[in-house]
Design brief:
The structure is a single chain. By secondary structure, the chain is α/β, with parallel strands linked by helices. The chain is 40% helix and 18% strand. The protein contains six helices and seven strands. The strands form two sheets. The protein has a four-stranded parallel beta sheet. Strands 3-4-5 form a three-stranded antiparallel beta sheet, covered by helices on one side. The longest helix is centred in the last third of the chain and has 24 residues.
């Protein structure tokens, strides 16, 4: 599978917030932390993106974890940012869970520490957040939802399982063209502990690092 073909035909100028750009540069310098087995998984994901792009142009991706509370939001946000930064405007990112709960405020706090500008659009048991990484890009709207909600693509998408529990619960995802498992350890284990913030920051950085790596395979950047 050869990458870089489509992205090389276009030149894009993107203006991320300086804090986000700096954060991504730091994550790019950490690619040596991704072991060979994990890189193979990420390359398989990139190959599915390229394959679907060759077939239908636009590539919707739904990141799925059990509660759509932590890891799936991190993945949706960072893949959106990495794709925007590289000019891969054919990638559309979504997230969902096998059940809906709430986007955890610790997830939002970690993204704020990474440099995102976040406002609360709706309070309540399942708050809705607006996440901005550039004044020139559409914001990401984050809240918990099931993966097959009407707002998400219903067919022709890649399903990315970001937790082993959701992976086991959904051996098949209706409407998905491809299904990829890239599980991450749940930062929930540190909730209420002195390691809470550092654990969420670590997971946020890991997912940013790996989404940036996937996009690099597609764009050559």
């Amino acid at each position: 599978m050869h990458f870089f073909i489509v992205a090389a035909l276009h030149v894009f100028i993107t203006m991320l917030y300086p804090s986000i750009e700096q954060y991504l540069l730091q994550r790019r310098n950490e690619w040596s932390q991704i072991d060979s087995e994990r890189k193979a998984q990420l390359r398989a994901f990139a190959e599915q993106i390229q394959k679907l792009h060759d077939k239908q142009g636009e590539v919707p991706i739904i990141f799925i974890c059990t509660h759509n509370s932590r890891r799936s939001h991190f993945a949706q946000v960072w893949m959106s940012v990495a794709a925007y930064r590289a000019g891969l405007d054919y990638i559309r990112c979504y997230s969902g869970g096998t059940e809906a709960t709430a986007c955890n405020p610790r997830t939002i706090a970690a993204l704020q520490r990474a440099g995102f500008q976040i406002t609360t659009l709706q309070e309540g048991d399942n708050p809705k957040y607006q996440i901005r990484f550039s004044d020139d890009a559409q914001p990401i709207i984050a809240y918990s939802k099931v993966y097959d909600t009407a707002e998400n693509p219903q067919h022709g998408f890649i399903a990315v399982m970001t937790c082993s529990q959701a992976d086991e619960a959904c051996p098949a995802v209706r409407g998905a063209t491809a299904r990829v498992a890239i599980p991450y350890e749940d930062p929930k284990k540190a909730d209420g502990s002195p390691q809470e913030a550092s654990t969420y920051d670590e997971r946020c950085a890991q997912i940013a690092r790996e989404m940036l790596y996937v996009v690099s395979l597609l764009s050559g950047q």
